[in-house]
Amino acid sequence: MNPGRTPQHCDVLVIGAGAAGLMCALTAGRRGRVVQVIDHANKPGKKILMSGGGRCNFTNTGTSAANFISANPHFCKSALARYTPADFIEMVERHRIAWHEKELGQLFCDISSKLIVRMLLDECQQAAVRIRTDCAVEGIERGADGFRVRTGHGLFHCASLVIASGGLSIPSMGASGFGYEVARQFGHAVLPTRAGLVPLTLSGRHQERLADLSGVALPVEARCNGQAFRNFMLLTHRGVSGPAILQISSYWQPGDDLRLDLLPGHDPLQWLRDMKRERGTSELRTVLAEVMPKRMAQRLCEHWLPDRPVRQLDEPQLKQAAALLADFPLVASGTEGYRTAEVTLGGVDTRQVSSSTLESRQVPGLYFVGEVLDVTGWLGGYNFQWAWASGHAAGQAA
Questions:
Q1: Residue 18 contacts residue 48 (beta carbons within 8 Å)
Q2: Can you tell me where the transmembrane regions are (predicted)?
Q3: pTM
């Protein structure tokens, strides 16, 4: 940086050109605020671009506070109530972006997530927002008249500073702990972070028995710590993934009891009794293969269930087999970590942040939005809706 360079002035400086940062910038810009966005990455919206398999699961029509994990579960209610999925859909349709509902209220672009990024950038341009990429922050100071932010592109001076730098998930996309460092610098508590919406790893016996089934997917209900998610599980070389596992991973920690219903929607005991009566000569693995992938049925009967004709199973054995199918204990050893995690659990303690404006209660003019806060959504568009809602709330105030 050239120390003699004239500071660049703005009303609002947003650090982070992701979903929450861009939404905050365009909202503040529409109010007539002079807004500058900076990001250390080489282009804006990188995580948006890779989300939803390149189609961007941009919201969920069923969004409520119940779909989020936070030490302060009421915190997200205000912002979510004031900027709803319908509000974002209105903007998407105004930009003529075609979309569809996949399942469970999840909305995706028909064509490409690039259209969502383009929409946000167009809205920023219309609101006269300036965006600068490849711009790393070197230091932040606060004075009587606002904040001074030193960067590789010179000194920025702003009245309001918005931290929209995300969490630790997917470091290959440029994720870092920058936002947590800024929070601590200004006296904010940061709750412990860990990977969320992440594949689980197996070790020992489970890994040995299931690793070669990599690629097999089946519907399950995953249960842990009072939470349950019914969706697909995918077996991998290192463990388990798929929507049901990603969802439950946010509630699981090493040592926690994790159970799977391998026949969700069935009463396993009644089903086994029916099979014994109607298909008694068939092997258990054969009838199981009609309600789950054949390879999974075979593996269960090789290691966990009786490998013989159904008629040979007495009532206690039927009950034992049914109990295992309904409540299969999966002993996970860990997670794949931030490398593949979709989100970061934990973050800036929301008790020190206004739920209506997202402004710091410690430092006037300092705002936190999006994933950097201790608010983490379920899989299925909820984290994007939090980004839009929190960005909008701060953009109306900053």
A1: yes
A2: none
A3: 0.95
Looking at the chain, the number of H-run helices and the number of E-run strands are 13, 21
Sign of the torsion angle spanned by Cα atoms 379, 250, 48, 116: positive
CA atoms of 390 and 250, how far apart (whole Å): 21
Model confidence pLDDT, tens digit, residues 32-81: 999 999 999 999 999 999 998 899 999 999 999 999 999 999 999 999 99
Q: Which fold has domain 8-195+344-397?
A: FAD/NAD(P)-binding domain (3.50.50)
What's the pLDDT tens digit per position in 181-198? 999 999 999 999 999 999
Angle CA(167)–CA(171)–CA(174) in degrees, nearest 5? 85
Class of CATH domain 200-335: mainly beta
Tokens 């915190």 correspond to: 75
Give CA torsion, residues 101, 103, 107, 110, to 10 deg.
-50
Q: Where are the domains of the chain?
A: 8-195+344-397, 200-335
Tell me the C-alpha distance between 51 and 57, whole Å.
7
Coil/strand/helix, residue 378: coil
